[in-house]
Amino acid sequence: MLLRISNLLDSIINFMAILGRVVIIIISLLIIGDIVSLKFFSYQFPWVLEVSEYLLVFLTFLGVAWLLREDGHIKLDLLLNRLSEKNRMRMEILNSCIGAIISLVITVYGFLATWNLHMRDIKTETILEIPRSLLIVVIPVGFLFVFIQFIRNFLSAINKLKSRREKS
Amino acid sequence: SSGDGDENGSGSKGVTLNAVSFLPKDHPLTATLYDWIDSVEDATDGRVKVNWRGGADVIPIGEQFEAMNSGVMDINFTYIGQYQSLAPETLSIALSQLTPSEERENGFYDLMVDRHEEMNVMYLGRWLTGSPRLWLNEPIDSVDDLKNMPIRSAPNYTRFFEKLGIASAMIDPSEVYTSLQTGVVKGFVYGGFNGPRKDGWTDSSKYILDHPFWTQNCTILMNNDKWDEISTEDRDAIVAATAEYEKEMVEYYTELDKEEIEELDKNGVELFKLPKAEEEKFLDLAYDTEWGYLKKEVPELVDELRVLTMKEE
Amino acid sequence: MEWWGVLALVFGSIFILFMIGLPIAFSFLTINIIGVIVLWNGEAGLNQLILNIFSSVSKFSLLPIPMFILMGEIMFRTGLGFKVFEAVGKWFGNLPGRLSIVAVGSGTLFSVLSGSSVASTALLGSLLVPDMQKKGYSPAMTVGPILGSAGLATMIPPTALGILLASLASIPVGHFLFAIVVPGLLLAVIFVLYIIIRCYLQPELAPAYDVEKVSLSEKLIGTVKYILPLGFIVFLLLGVIILGIATPTQSAVLGALGTVVLSYFYGGLSWEKFWDSLTGTLRSSVMIFMIIIGSTTFGQILSYTGVTQGLVQIVGNLEFPPLIILVIIQIVLLILGCFMEPLSIMMMTLPILMPIAGTMGFDPLWFGAIMLLNMQVATITPPFGMDLFAMKAVIPKDSISMKEIYKAVVPFILLNLAIMALIIIFPSLTLWLPSFVK
Ligand code: NA
Ligand code: NA
C-alpha cells in the first residue's frame, strides 16, 4: 500500500517534470513565431511577452519537487563532508524538517493567496487580463510536492539511522 | 531603530505610514514626492509620518497595489495601469483635460474618491504631469505613415495603436535601447519628456511627434482601513495639503519638462507636428477609442465622466 | 534593534541553515518567511511573499538562461561542442596548461555569444571539465579558468547584467557597452598569463600530454568543419540583433534553435539526446531560478528594513577623499557579493550609490564599469555565488567538492580585483572606447 502511494507520487512528480520540459519547447516556439510574425507580417502577438514570462514561473514550479527528489538543489557541503555518516543523517533529519515546515507554509498560504485572488476576481493588468489565481496556483501545487518530498527525505534519513543502529 | 512611531510625544496618537513607489526613490520624476511627505507631516503637526520604504527593490511593481490593498504597505505612489481592470472608470484620469485643481473644484476628484473606495482604497491625489507622445526614428507626414510601423508599446496603448495600424511591440525595458538601435522597433511611446534621453533611447529616436494625447495618470493611493484610523481633523489636513501639493507639483514638472526640451534640442532631438487635419484625426482617434471602450465597460458612468473631464470651451 | 544587529542576526541564521545542508534556495525562503511575518503584518505578509515569489522569476530578461543552457546541453550531449573545442585546441601548441588556455580562449569566444556568465559557466563547465579531468588536470586548472573566463560573458557585450546595471543606474546603455569591452579583454589576457606562469611553476596541476603534431591543412580543415559553422550560431545570436530582426533575448531562442539544427546536420542529435538535453536544461534552470526566487525576495525584505541603506549611508557620510570612498564602496560591495546575487545588490545599492558617485564627481561610465566587474566577481565569491553553484551543478556528480571549487576560484577573484584596481588607477581604460561614439 505504502509502496503504491510512493509510486503514484513519483509518477506525479515525473509527469510535472515532463511538463516542465515541454514548457521549454513551448516558450521557444512562441518566441520564434513572434519574431517571424513581426519581421514578415508586421504583427507582434502582443501576449507572447507576458505568456513567456508566466511560463518561466511554470517551468520553475513544475520542476522544483522533481529537482529536490533528484537532490539537484544547490547546497553547501562544507560541514556535511566532515561529519560521520550518523551525524550526517541527523543533519539530514533536521534540514528536511525545516524544509518540510517552510514548504508547508508556502503551500498553505499559496492556496490561500490563490483563493483570495479567485474570490476577488483579480486579473493581470496586461493585454490578456488572465485571472491571477490561475497563475499563482502553480506555486502551492509545486510546493505541495516539495513538502511531500521533504517528508520522504525525512523518513528515509530516519530509516537509515535506525538500520545503522540495528546493525551496530 | 525601526518601529511604528507610536512613541510620538505628548500623548497624541501618532502613526507612521509605510509607502512604496513604482519608480525608484532617486528617480528625477519622484523628486516632488518628498515634498508631499513633508507637507503631510507638517499639516498634521507630525502626527502622521510617512516612511517611504523604496520602489521595486522592496515590492515588485506589479504587486505594489496588492501590497497596499492588503495592508503590507499603507501608501502606494502608482499609476492607474496597475489596477485598471478592477475599476475601468479610473481610465478617465488619463483622459482628463483639466488640471488637478480643476478636477477638485468640479467634483471629478470626489467621484474618483468614491470609485476608489469600492476597492477599499483612498484616492489622495495625483503626482507627475505630462502626456504621452510618440518618439520616432524617422519623421512622418501623415497618420497613415504609422501603419505597420513597429513601435515599442505598453498594454494601455494597444487599443489606440490598433486603430492607428501600429505594430505594437511589447519589449522588456532592458531591451528597448538595442531594439531601437537595430530597428526591431522604429520608435516608442513615452509619457512626458524626462527619461528617454538619459536611457540613451534618443540615440535612435530623434523625432518626437508633438501631439500629446491623454495625460499622465500617476496617483497617490492609501489603504482605506488605515485611512479610517486617522482622525477626521488630520484626514482633512492631508487632503488639503495634497491639493496644495498638486499645484506646486504641476509647476515643478512643467518647469522640468521645459529644461528637458532644451536639453533634447541640444542633443538634436526634434519636436514636430503634423498638418492640422492630420493632428485632429490623430487626437480624435486617441480619445474616441478610449471613450468608446469606457462606454462598453462602464455605460452608467461614461457620460458623467466625460462631462467632468472635458475642458469647457 | 540597531540595523547592524539585524544584519548580524539575519546573516548568522542564513549561514547556519547553509551549514546544516538545507539547499540554498530553501534557506533563503526560511528567513524570508520569518521576515515577512515579523515585518509585513503576519498573514498579509505571507500572502505578499507568494506574490513576490511569482514576480521574481516572471521576467522576460531571465529567458536567455534556459536557452543558453539548452545550447550548452545540446553541444555537450551531441559531441558537437567537443569537436569545436578540439578544433580550437589544434591551434594551440604545447603550452603549459594547454587545455586551461583553450578554456579561456573558448570562454572569450563564447562571451560574444552569451549574455550571462551563469549560462557560460554551465556550457563551458559541462563541455570542458570532463575532458580536462581525463587528462589529469587539477580543479585549480579546470573550474578556476572556466569560472574566470565565463565571467567575460558579463564583461563583453552582449551582457544581461551590464544592461540591467546601466538601466538601473540611468547610464546610457550604448556608451556603457563600449566602456566595458577593454576591461573584459584585459581579463582574458591576464588569465592566460596567469595560467602559463602557474603551470610552468607547478606542472603537476596540468599534466603535459603528447599533443599530436597537427599539419596546417588539418588545422584548417578542423576550423572550416567545426568552427566556421559556428558562424551560423553567431549569426543567429548577434547577426539577427544587428540586422534588427530580433532583440537580444529573442536571439537567445534563435541561438538554441540554431544549435539544434546544426547538431542535427552533424549527425549527433537523436530524439533521446534532445530529451536528455531538455532534462539537463530543466535541472539547471530550476536550480538557478529557485535561487533567484530566494535571493530576490530576501533582497526585498532587507531593502525594506533599511539595513542596506544604513550600511551604504555610513559610507556616504565618511569624510575621506573620493578615491578612498570609491575603494570603500567596492569593498562593501564585495562583502555583500559574498552572500547575495548581483541583481539584488544592484537593486538595493544603486539608488544610493549613484547619488554618492554624483557628489564625488565620478564619471558614471567609469563607476558603472568598476561596479559591473564587482558584480561579476560577486557571482564567483564564496560562499554564495551563482556561477559557483552552476559549475557544481553541471560537472560530473561528486567529482569536485564545493570546497575545491571555492579554492580553485580564489586566484581568479584576485585577478579580477587586480584589473579592477587597474581600471580605478587608469580611468581611460574604460573611457577611451566610448569617447569614439560620443
Ligand atoms: Na557577453
Ligand atoms: Na558571491
Give a description of the structure:
The complex is a heterotrimer of chains A (168), B (313) and C (438). Chain A has 168 residues and is mainly α. Chain A has one domain (2-167). Helices cover 79% and strands 0% of the residues of chain A. Chain A has five helices and no strands. Chain A has helices at residues 2-41, 48-69, 85-119, 132-136, 138-167. In chain A, α2 (48-69) runs parallel beside α5 and α3 (85-119) packs antiparallel against α5 (138-167). Chain B has 313 residues and is α/β, with parallel strands linked by helices. Chain B has eleven helices and eleven strands. In chain B, the strands form three sheets. Chain B has a five-stranded mixed β-sheet, sandwiched between helices. In chain B, α1 (31-43) links the parallel β1 (15-21) and β2 (48-54). In chain B, α1 (31-43) packs antiparallel against α9 (232-266) and α6 (158-164) packs across α10. Chain B is globular. Chain C is an all-alpha fold. Chain C has two domains: 32-62; 63-436, no CATH class. Chain C is 77% helix and 0% strand. Chain C is built from 24 helices and no strands. Chain C has helices at residues 3-19, 24-39, 43-57, 64-77, 80-89, 98-111, 117-134, 139-150, 152-155, 160-168, 173-179, 181-201, 216-227, 230-242, 248-265, 271-305, 307-317, 322-339, 342-360, 364-378, 386-394, 402-425, 428-431, 434-437. The model of chain C has no long low-confidence stretch (mean pLDDT 85). The interface between A and C is large, with 55 and 58 residues. The structure holds sodium ion (NA) (2 copies).
